[in-house]
Amino acid sequence: MHLLVAGASGYIGQRLLPTLLAEGHRVTCLVRDPARFAAPAGAGPNLEILRGDLLDPYNLPILPGTIEGAYYLVHSMTAGEGDFREKEAACARNFTAALKPTACRHIVYLSGIANDPRLSHHLSSRVGVESVLQESGIPVTVLRAAIIIGSGSASFEIIRDLVEKLPIMIAPRWLNTRCQPIGVRDVVVYLTRVLDQPAAFGKIWDIGGPDVLSYREMLLGFAQQRRLRRWIHTVPVLTPRLSSYWLYFITSTSYHLACSLVDSMKNEVVVERTGIETVVPHTPADYATALARAFEKIDNNQVLSSWKDSIVSGTISDADINHLQVPRNGVYRDEHILPITRPVAETRALVYGIGGDRGWYVMNWAWSLRGLLDRFVGGIGLRRGRRNKDSLRIGDPLDFWRVLVTDTAQNRLTLYAEMKLPGEAWLEFEIQGETNPNLRVTTIFRPRGVLGRLYWYGILPMHRHVFRAINRFLAQPPKNRPLDGQPRVREAK
């Protein structure tokens, strides 16, 4: 079949695409920014990329008339950007309008379990999208899932942050709310197997694993999987605002996403609309197995996608990232150049492996302090880490930076600061020359008003010390310790 996937660069889209291509489908992906789209390995000619923003119907591309089926995987979890419910409905309307001239005979939509009569804003928006898709006249299958467990999923990473960072939790009472988690592999199985099944047309099904757990039980189950002892005490006095701040300061989520999550966690999300087993006879994995699979991917550095890859996890939009060029005028620059005395491949690997769990190689305490201060003033801090410890893609989060340029051929890495600043900042690493190569590390700052100028001159001495040390570490190997930071054993003379 010729399939359209809207939201192909998102968490589920990136997991679904390899399966669709492996099954021999021809796939057209509709994405807002092709530069940030990571095509699956070995995609070949069956994959086509179209640029289009569903909120901008006048600039949507004309879809191929041969499209026979479509996946709608577009979601918003940001509560701070106007009326996101109306935005989601508008996206769905524009999607179906673009599909009508094609040969599409089936739409599959991944929604959220919405059986509670008092739905959160987020879940009610999902139900609204279902209605818009059903009004198109094209047969629709809606799969409603609760928490999706997989390496890089928002739910998994938030649970991981809480359990691994807090031995004792004084938690809000919504931790006693029940849900029915499902592994991401099982979600992909259901998405692919309902496709083009007449028995699935017009159906709304809940999908979930075999375990019905409270959020508290999920946290403790995670702790057991990691062999950690954890104590959780729930209290009734934490308001939704305080609960949002609790998630924001402890986990890598943004405040707006924390608000949406807290709002949704008051609803029980347990499977009620059954029947999918008659069309897709599949037994989903239990919670413990889904966790084990997630950690297997993490341990093998095979995380295909992460919710943190989304621009929503930071401070810039998809539209902005395409226009964020490093300015040359009206900025302050602090540049450090050193000859490279390591093997160049070694320096390149260190540059592209910077941040995340590895840290910033020198003065990590200073980076941690800067991240903590950023969290206290409403920024994102260092907790996003990085998707992959060895490789970077355009648009990837890297602690409190966003990757703008990652060009291994030109030996250049450019990052844009998403921390709270009185201005804008960029950080560039570039290996220059071939015969006698140098490493250039440059910080660029465009101040906003007098406060921005005071900020620059106030931190300049520390900046120079930190980035001079980073440049030295990357370009020139330490004389008395190996690269892993362990003491080098000197040979006896």
TrEMBL record:
Gene3D superfamilies in UniProt: NAD(P)-binding Rossmann-like Domain
Entry-linked InterPro entries: DUF2867, Lipid_A_modif_metabolic_enz, NAD(P)-bd_dom, NAD(P)-bd_dom_sf
Pfam families in UniProt: DUF2867, NAD_binding_10
Domain NAD(P)-binding, chain residue ranges per copy: 7-147
Protein name per its UniProtKB record: SDR family oxidoreductase
Organism: Acanthopleuribacter pedis
Lineage: Bacteria, Pseudomonadati, Acidobacteriota, Holophagae, Acanthopleuribacterales
